[in-house]
Each structure stands twice: as C-alpha cells, then as structure tokens.
Structures
1.
Amino acid sequence: MVQELRLPLIGGRVEAGFPSPADDFIERSLDLNEQLVANPIATFFVRASGHSMDGAGIHDGNLLVVDRSITPSHGSVVVVTIDGGLTVKRLTKRGMNIFLMPEPNKFDQGKYSPIEVGEESDATIWGVVTWAVHRLEITCTH
C-alpha cells in the first residue's frame, strides 16, 4: 500500500521567461502519486544508469516511473530485459523489424548503437516509462 504524502501546490505557474506576479495562495495539497502514478498496481520505479538516453531527458541516476499497463508502441520509451540485463531505450518499428534505439545528447551521437530485437533475442518489455525524475544540477556561469 502506498502511503499518501500531500504537499502544498502553489496556484499558478512559475515563469521560465519574464517574471509574472506571484499568486499569494496555496491552491490545494498535492500527492505526487496522483500526478506520477496512473495505475499503482502496474507501476514500478527503477533508477537509470548511463548516458544513452540523455537526449530524451533521461539522465544517469534519474528515477524512472514505469507503467506496465500501457501497451508499448512505436516511439514509446520502454524498460526492457534483453539477454539477462535491463535497459531503457526508445522502441522503434521499421517494417517488420523492431529496434531499441538510444537517444544520447548531441555530443555522444555515434557512441551508442541501436539494438535489433530479433527472434533469437531474449527480450521482454517490462513497461513504458511515463516520467523521469531528476535532481537539478547546480552550475554557476557568472
């Protein structure tokens, strides 16, 4: 059973461009489980490792929310067991062929290879990634 943890949700949105007047009230309380987990029975969390999916917004150490109740389709980001290991990749279908595609940042292009999922592969899709939760890096350029 998931314990509910409600935290304040501030009304309005935070501008990432020019500042706007702040709302002076708390809209309601918010439980992140309500926002991140659509189907609790079919959802699990896993920690990402490596940099092959940086371009998709999935970074080393991110907490991934994975929903097993979603049917994976072309373009879905999926967690897959393949040949005894776990990986997270973008599912791509080209004709009758299925590939697990890396999506590195622009500096790591060519560093990671697609994985073709053939009949001889021992691959099982565990679920579709719905959220990647990560801590912001603190950098100062001034």
2.
Amino acid sequence: MTNRWNLTGRRALVTGGTKGIGYAVAKELLELGAEVLIAARNALDVADCVAAWMAQGLPAAGLAADVTDEAGRAAVFAEVAARWGGLDVLVNNVGTNMRKGFVDYAPAEYEQLFHANLFSTMEMCRAAHPLLQASAHAAIVNIGSVAGRLDVGTGAPYGLTKAAEEQLGRHLAVEWAPDGIRVNTVAPWFIRTPLTAGLLGRPEVLARVEARTPLGRVGEPAEIAAAVAFLCLPGASYITGQCLVVDGGMMAKGL
C-alpha cells in the first residue's frame, strides 16, 4: 500500500518550477520521493530553489531555460537525457496572461499567449514522448484553468488556450495509452501566486472571488500541487484523460 502513495525512483520534469504552482508542485514531488528537475527562465531563482531543496536532502536539480522557445526546450531535454536518460513525469506549468477586452488585443499579444500557454505545452509533450514511452509508469499533468471551461474575466485568449490544453490532454490520453503514458489536466480557480497577486491585491476583486467560492477563500499553491502529485502516483494508475478541477466548489455553485 505504501508504494502506491510515493514516487520513489521516479524522474520528474517541472516547468516554471521556481514560483507559485510550479514551485509547490516540484516541492511536493520531491517530498514524495521523486527526483525533480525544474526549468525556469531566471537562473538565480533556479539556483536558489535547488540549493534550498538540496540542503533539505531532496534530490533536486534545475536549469535556466525558456520552454516557450525551441532552443530552450532543446536545452531542457538535453539535460534530461544527460542526467537520467529517461523520464517518468512531466508537469507542464508554464503560462502567462494579459487581461483586457478582446478587441483590445494586438495580434502579437494573443499570439504570445498561445505560444506561452498552449504551443509550448504541445511541444514539451511531443519532445517528452520517446522518453516517457520508455518508462514503465509515465504520467503527464498539464496545468489548465477553470477559465478553459467558463468565463471568469481573464480574457478570451487565455481561456481559449486553457480550453485547448484540456482537449489536448484528452486526445493524448487516448492516442498515447498504448504507449503506457497517462495524460491528465488540473484546472485551478484563483490561487495565490505571483500571476494573480495584482488582481487579488484589489479588495473588490478578492471579495468577488471569495463570494463566488463556496469554501470562501482563495486557494493555495500547495493545494494544486497535491492534486498534481496524486495524478502522478501509482495509486492513480487507472486515471487518464481527465481534468481535475480544484476550485473550492466555485463551478458547483451556480447562482
């Protein structure tokens, strides 16, 4: 039973692993026994996170790379190949947003959002496929959003990318099941991260979010990390093609 609830011996790659949800996911996987490689753009942040985890005896590593860029993705998978020669878990966490009315976006802005939130996830999955296919217990978890299911005022391009990301997970779960790769999505509501700090720092916005959420509060990164980790565990071995919404009950509330 214990072996079903730990990740000892698993090799995990987490993108955007120095802040917010990505940091919490990496930490959770490390504490469950996985070896974790984080990738993020800021070299100093990567070094600080890895040093702190290693000081706790956790098997962490990292590199500075922008996974929205082809060269950055190549560097990440070169490191994975050199360090491990294989991969068991991929968590695609990188994403960003620009909140404005639809007609106010310049084409270059929504193209940027599609590259950051969707195309990079697609390419990370594709590059990871041969490594995951060689694993006996491969899992991909993509970080989506409830914005991919209903309008939450985050802007049309962001919602579009998150809806597409969820559909990508469903499709790959079916296509790659014969390869032994499970693919799932976790869709958060408002979580306290650097990406939401500006909005949640406005009392009127925070009050609306809390009023809309049956649990009456904003979520924490560790609560998303727990959901991600569960989907990577041996105990979740029959779960694929799903989207686990982590929203404090928001989508269940209605009027």
